[in-house]
């Protein structure tokens, strides 16, 4: 390029001083012929140099012009291609995707039925080492597998199969956080397994603090390094703060502060996607009776109805969301109540479900809509922040077959699995299993939000 100054550009104009000199020449025929002859010869030589392979500087300079233009155009084309792909992921533009989003937007995803689909589950039983032992029914010896071959089918549309690779693209650079009780941990573990199975390099998927068990800590964070993404869980069974009140005589009492958001809230308020839940701990004896347990300010209620306490706690949560979460940045979801199926008692009084191998098929055997979820709906309507309500109560009510029941621990004989003293789990869900369908609903919700 050092020689470029020696050769005028094809499209360059002579300097103004040269134009003045040319106009001062005698306008004779001879001068004109010589002038135009010189110009023609120069142009011909220049074109010949450009188009003829040569090692001289003139040829290299012309070659560098075309190469630079071609390279620049190619880069622009590549960038445009990448941009278009990105736009299609974020805002589907082709007919099929746009049509799918439109159908999902106008569909009640939670009104449907379970249908057999042998292409399920989304990941092979026993293939995900991250599943908590108590949810890993396959590894714990459950002999049947029909419970993980059912797909949720809405009546008004077709629910797309969760494409883990695409979901990872949607979540690239984002932070997705589950907050709630062990049923949300159930859903969190399901999603981590689905996405890990779809990751380009599974060795770049790991728990941020190096943990391998996921029951005893207050929070966990799975890092998807290649996608700059984290999938996290914060344990908070009530969404408000568990408390210890000390009285003047020195005695202490455990209470539930209905007027205070749970203590980890500041750690996740800026996440890109928040999925909350609460419900099951409100059915336990202490909360359901409501005696000397619920507190607001310094007042511990002698007795407070559990539904009223639930409403006050959710109102505190809703006010916190409105005051602290930016709806322009963060998508907020609330997953509804997951129905339990204890037969002959409750979780601590001999309730069982180990004989259940098929879902309920007759609607008349389904339970009524949970009263606590009616309270939730009223709270959500009073909030400024949009919250997507994942109303999974009915879809879980069908699934009496999907619980761990007696298959909660590895390497147990049948005799040890089922003694009268061993409680069954008819609240949580086997993995693979029902929570995978919740995550397909989450995937559909993300697709709806791309419109």
Automatic annotation (TrEMBL):
Membrane topology type = Single-pass membrane protein
In its UniProt entry, what is this protein called? Trichome birefringence-like N-terminal domain-containing protein
Listed Pfam families: PC-Esterase, PMR5N
Q: Where in the cell is it found?
A: Membrane
Q: Where is the Trichome birefringence-like N-terminal domain?
A: 106-158
- What family does this belong to? Belongs to the PC-esterase family. TBL subfamily.
Where are the membrane-spanning stretches? 33-51
Q: Where is this region: Disordered?
A: 400-426
GO CC annotations, alphabetized: Golgi apparatus; membrane
Specify the Trichome birefringence-like C-terminal domain's residue ranges.
159-444
Q: Which UniProt keywords apply?
A: Membrane, Signal-anchor, Transmembrane, Transmembrane helix
Q: What organism does the UniProt record list as the source? A: Rhododendron simsii
| GO MF, any single term | O-acetyltransferase activity
